[in-house]
Design brief:
Blueprint (H helix, E strand, L loop, with lengths): L1 H20 L10 H4 L8 H19 L8 E3 L5 E3 L8 E7 L3 H20 L5 E8 L7 H12 L5 E5 H5 L8 E5 L5 E6 L4 H9 L9
Parallel strand pairs: 3-4, 4-5
Antiparallel strand pairs: 1-2, 3-6, 6-7
C-alpha cells in the first residue's frame, strides 16, 4: 500500500512539474477565417457579431500569455528580441504607416494621457512598434516620414514586420498591450480613444511611485 502511495505521489508531482514547465506563449489567431465571413450584403449586426467573436478569441489567446520570441529592428537597423527589452511593466503600442487613426492616437491622444499619468506620479515604460508591411517598400519615403514623426514622441521605437505583429494577434490600429515583468500580457486596448479615457484605462492598472 505504501509503495502504491509513493508511486501515486511521484506521478502527481511529475504531472504538476510538467504543467509548470509547459510553454504559455501567445497563441496566434487565424484571422483569415474571419475575413471569409465578410460576405456581400452582410448586415451591421452580422459584422458586429464577427468582430465580437474575433475579439473573444484574441483575448483568450493573448491575455495572460507570454510574448513569443519576436524579432524587431532598432533605429540603427540591428535586430533585437522584444522580450529582452521588457524587465518591468511596459506599455507596448503598435500602428502602421497607412492608418491615419493609428497615427493620430499615438501622436496626440496617448502622449496627453501619458503626461497626465506623470503628473499623478505614475510612470510606465513605453515601447512603440511601427508595423512594416510588404507594400511599404513601394513608398519607403512615406514609411520613414511616419517613423520619424513617431520617434519624436517615443524614443524607444522599433520596426516590426506585419508578419511578426500577427504573432501578437494585432488586428487593429492602434493596439495597446500592457506587459508585466514576466513578459506576460496583462491587457489589450484597441483603436483610438480620448486622452481622458486612455488615462483612466492605464491608471487603473498602474501603481503610483508611492505604491511601488
Amino acid at each position: 500500500m505504501k509503495i502504491k502511495l509513493v508511486l501515486l505521489t511521484t506521478f502527481l508531482t511529475l504531472l504538476f512539474l510538467g504543467c509548470e514547465n509547459k510553454e504559455n506563449y501567445i497563441i496566434p489567431v487565424d484571422f483569415e477565417k474571419y475575413e471569409k465571413d465578410y460576405i456581400p450584403g452582410l448586415t451591421q449586426k452580422g459584422s458586429q457579431d464577427i468582430q465580437s467573436r474575433q475579439w473573444e478569441e484574441v483575448s483568450e489567446n493573448t491575455i495572460g500569455k507570454e510574448l513569443p520570441d519576436l524579432i524587431i529592428v532598432d533605429q540603427t537597423n540591428h535586430e533585437i528580441e522584444l522580450r529582452s527589452l521588457i524587465n518591468e511593466k511596459t506599455l507596448v503600442v503598435l500602428t502602421g504607416a497607412h492608418c491615419g487613426w493609428g497615427m493620430e492616437g499615438l501622436t496626440n491622444d496617448l502622449p496627453h494621457a501619458l503626461k497626465k499619468l506623470q503628473e499623478d506620479k505614475i510612470e510606465i515604460e513605453v515601447i512603440c512598434l511601427f508595423i512594416k508591411a510588404d507594400s511599404d517598400d513601394e513608398d519607403i519615403e512615406l514609411f520613414n516620414t511616419k517613423f520619424d514623426e513617431l520617434k519624436s514622441f517615443y524614443p524607444n521605437i522599433y520596426v516590426i514586420t506585419e508578419k511578426e505583429s500577427k504573432r501578437l494577434n494585432v488586428f487593429a490600429n492602434p493596439t495597446r498591450m500592457l506587459i508585466n515583468k514576466d513578459k506576460s500580457v496583462c491587457s489589450i486596448g484597441l483603436g483610438v480613444s480620448t486622452p481622458e479615457r486612455l488615462f483612466e484605462e492605464l491608471k487603473k492598472q498602474l501603481p503610483t511611485n508611492a505604491q511601488k
